[in-house]
Design brief:
It is a single chain. It is built from one helix and five strands, in the order βββββα. By secondary structure, the protein is mainly β. A five-stranded antiparallel sheet has the order 4-3-2-1-5. The radius of gyration is 11 Å and the shape is globular. This is DUF1918 domain-containing protein.
Amino acid sequence: MRATVGDRLVQHGRVVGQHDRIGEIVEVLGREGNPPYRVRFEDGHEGVCSPGPDTEIRHKEMLQ
């Protein structure tokens, strides 16, 4: 999984009724675009994330 600053990280809900969490990658802490990433979520929360299998990266080129 590789990302750049400005890409979106989408954590899919794991149980029924749990919504997806979407955040913007504000810093790439790993080498060559690899995790971990500093992510700012829609609710303003910011944290370091090492994405799991329930996560996808939406590259900023795809968002335009």
